[in-house]
Design brief:
The complex is a heterodimer of chains A (about 450) and B (about 250).
Chain A lengths: L2 H10 L1 H22 L5 H17 L1 H14 L3 E5 L2 H15 L3 E4 L3 H5 L2 H7 L3 E4 L2 H8 L16 H12 L8 H18 L2 E4 L3 E3 L5 E5 L3 H8 L2 E7 L3 E2 L5 H13 L6 E5 L7 E7 L3 H5 L15 H5 L1 H6 L10 H11 L16 H5 L6 H15 L5 H12 L2 H17 L2 H4 L20 H8 L2
Parallel strand pairs in A: 1-10, 2-3, 2-4, 4-7, 5-8, 7-10
Antiparallel strand pairs in A: 5-6, 6-9
Helix pairs in contact in A: 2-12, 3-12, 9-10, 16-18
Chain B lengths: L6 E4 L3 H6 L1 H13 L3 E3 L9 H8 L4 H11 L4 E4 L2 H10 L7 H8 L2 E3 H8 L12 E5 L2 H6 L15 H6 L6 E2 L15 H4 L1 H17 L4 E4 L2 H13 L5 E4 H9 L1
Parallel strand pairs in B: 1-2, 1-3, 3-4, 5-6, 5-7, 7-8
Helix pairs in contact in B: 2-13, 11-12
The chains are: A alpha/beta (about 450), B alpha/beta (about 250).
Chain lengths: ~450, ~250
């Protein structure tokens, strides 16, 4: 499936597509309003962008600092080159603990590594404890948004699902009631898990600590009850100093949901006596992306999801239309770096409107990278036959005479052809749109008559 | 017209030449009324944007060379299109042997409204246009050329087109719910992502209709061609004019 096909499918349910658009627009609007209460907002973005530039330019040495300082704090540090190695490390820790059931708070990285199916293959029960993630896990779906994993579902659908899975009252759609049911269900899972997995929002090179941000406190609940905490971290999540957090925490929640701050920003530095903290530093294509001059900026991303909420395409096609772990504009510049062929339609799923770049808290030039990926993809693929037609057009455009001939041919064709042919289903422009009326003369002809 | 007036070349996008000659005429007459010495260099072709945005920028060296040769002698190049101007400035490939001329030219190319407000330094246009006007900000003009503040940024609001329109006698400016959302044209996107393109266009039209726009205007006919195409198909009661047409009518 390609993005256009998936988007067409999503848009078939017009009422739901409209609801999806409006729901995410509401989040973007909230973000707009709160960002405008911070007079230095644009300076914060610039500062964050520069800090991340510095991180990317010195990533190797910051990672070594981070490892050394984390080890000093008693954290066990692992390195994983790819998703498979990451999963194997997690499994080994679990097997050593003789652990058969774990709780996991939201981590897009573990989605990227497909950790859940891997562990389930080895008979380990994985419970996602973020409410939205638990909902999509019940449905056997991936998250459709990196911050709002179940944003594609309406409360009626969740009510039905909970009735089936958690035996809630049929037809009761009250969010408080449903959330309470999830809390009771999850409490039992928290109490039974010896190992808790979390993602990492920021790793601090200077101190060897790391920060996990959640709104539900589920990361903390899991970690404090378990004996072993495994934190999975992409290598680009490094910040040089603890004080840099002041910049990023202010930007993150405001950009993500329009809140002044995430409810729980938990700092993890050293394991409690008798407990263990493991951190797995994962590359999985990041070093390769760092080496791509035009695309390395994509690694500045702090996973706030603002580009999804603002994207007129994402809002009207849903997260699943992208078929990648990270959907939306940022996903469309990250994913081709992982598999250009598989994700070749994603950089074209954009009008290059630029809203993503203006909303990005770390000033990633997302729409410019979408443009650049298009240039790369067309070099390696015929790109659905668009290649040939575009080459024909090029032959037309660089010769004025040919342009004039084809122009007037086109114009006279439009005049002469019956509507039935112009609006033939094969003519995609005309399917739901009229063509402009053909004037009797071009501007060039008018100018020659009137000004020469 | 002063004898030492700068010499302005009118750059008319290919689809405007073919389908909207009245927009070209209005742009020319408007600049002339504002005292400019304007020439339309013959032999203009497409700037290459559709190819470049489709991923074939490398195939537009020929059109770009032609563009530079045609326009390099002029003091300014002005086009009634933010999108084509953005392409020329940011996405036209470097032409071997003409790098210097190309760099100089990029500083001389302007979209029509920014040329009037920034180069001609027109503070206020005197004229009359008693209609309710809804403005569609083309993304390439707005976020590309920064012809208006963007709703995502924390900046002092401004809008170069609005500055020219709002002083016209009788003109009512329509405030939209989503001031600068994309209309879904997007060049080849209009065809490759047809379903999304149409949905986005319909949503923009609904915003205008629910705020009682009588005439929908903008700086890029490509967006307007798309929106008008949808509105006409659905018998929606809206008129469409390029901003050059409004300004030219209003000040005559």
């Amino acid at each position: 499936m390609s993005h256009p096909e998936n988007a067409t499918e999503f848009l078939k349910d017009q009422a739901k597509a409209k609801w999806h658009d409006e729901t995410l627009w509401f989040v973007r609007d909230k973000r707009d309003r709160i960002s405008k209460t911070i007079p230095e907002w644009e300076q914060l973005r610039e500062l964050a962008s520069q800090i991340k530039d510095n991180v990317l330019a010195n990533l190797g040495s910051y990672l070594e600092d981070f490892e050394r300082n984390a080890q000093k704090n008693g954290i066990i540090v692992h390195w994983a080159e790819d998703g498979e190695e990451h999963n194997r490390i997690v499994l080994e820790i679990l097997q050593k603990q003789n652990c058969k059931a774990i709780v996991k708070s939201k981590s897009i990285l573990t989605e990227e590594c497909h950790l859940n199916p891997y562990l389930e293959k080895y008979g380990i029960e994985v419970v996602d404890t973020d409410l939205g993630e638990r909902i999509v896990q019940f449905l056997n779906q991936p998250p459709s948004h990196i911050v709002l994993p179940a944003i594609h579902l309406k409360k009626g659908e969740i009510s039905e699902l909970f009735h089936e899975k958690l035996h809630t009252e049929k037809g009761n759609e009250d969010p408080t009631y449903l959330t309470q049911a999830a809390r009771i269900h999850l409490r039992e899972k928290f109490l039974g898990a010896k190992v808790a997995i979390t993602g990492v929002n920021f790793g601090i090179a200077e101190t060897g600590e790391f920060v996990v941000c959640t709104n539900e406190g589920n990361a903390d609940m899991g970690v404090h009850l378990a004996d072993v905490h495994i934190a999975c971290m992409g290598i680009e999540k490094i910040l040089p100093r603890r004080k840099d957090l002041g910049v990023f925490l202010r930007l993150l929640a405001r950009s993500a949901t329009g809140q002044p701050v995430t409810n729980y920003n938990s700092h993890f530095r050293s394991p409690s006596p008798g407990k263990e903290i493991h951190i797995i530093l994962v590359d999985n294509g990041r070093t390769a992306q760092l080496a791509r001059e035009k695309f390395k900026n994509s690694l500045k991303c702090i996973r706030c999801g603002a580009c999804m909420n603002t994207c007129p395409i994402y809002r009207r096609s849903g997260g699943f239309s992208y078929g990648s772990t990270v959907p939306g504009p940022i996903g469309s510049i990250l994913s081709p770096g992982l598999d250009m062929k598989k994700y070749s339609t994603l950089p074209f799923a954009s009008t290059l409107c630029g809203s993503c770049s203006d909303v990005c808290p770390v000033k990633i030039n997302i729409h410019e990278q979408l443009y650049e990926w298009r240039q790369e993809i067309t070099k390696t693929h015929g790109e659905f036959g668009k290649g040939l037609s575009m080459k024909l057009a090029s032959g037309i455009f660089n010769s004025p005479l040919a342009y004039k001939i084809s122009g007037s041919l086109m114009r006279s064709a439009l005049k002469a052809l019956p509507d039935s042919l112009i609006y033939h289903p094969l003519n995609t422009w005309g399917k739901s749109r009229n063509l402009p009326e053909t004037p009797k003369e071009t501007f060039q002809q008018w100018y020659q008559k009137n000004r020469s | 017209m002063k004898p030492d007036s700068p010499h302005i070349a009118l750059f008319i996008p290919c689809y405007v030449d073919q389908f909207y000659p009245k927009v070209g005429i209005a742009s020319l007459e408007l600049l002339e009324k504002l005292g400019c010495k304007v020439t339309y260099p013959q032999g203009q072709t497409c700037c290459g944007q559709p190819l470049a945005n489709a991923g074939y920028e490398r195939d537009t060296v020929g059109t770009t060379r032609h563009f530079i040769e045609l326009f390099r002698e002029f003091d300014y190049v002005v086009a009634p299109s933010g999108s084509c101007v953005l392409h020329v400035k940011e996405h036209s490939p470097s032409v071997p042997g003409l790098e210097k001329e190309q760099a100089e030219l990029h500083h001389k190319v302007f979209e029509l409204t920014e040329f009037i407000t920034d180069i001609l330094q027109v503070e206020k246009l005197d004229g009359k246009f008693p209609h309710r006007v809804g403005f569609h900000a083309s993304c390439h003009g707005q976020r590309g050329l920064r012809l208006a503040s963007s709703s995502e940024l924390n900046q002092t609001p401004f809008n170069k087109a609005r500055k020219l329109l709002e002083n016209l006698e009788g003109l009512e400016w329509v405030e939209l719910s989503r001031t600068d959302e994309c209309c879904g044209f997007g060049g080849t996107f209009a065809v490759t992502e047809e379903a999304l393109s149409i949905r986005m266009g319909k949503d923009r039209l609904e915003d205008h209709l629910s705020h009682k726009t009588e005439i929908l205007t903008g700086g890029d006919m490509s967006c307007i061609m798309h929106l008008q195409g949808i509105a006409t198909r659905n018998n929606q009661n809206l008129k469409f004019l390029h901003i050059a047409e409004i300004l030219n009518q209003a000040i005559s």
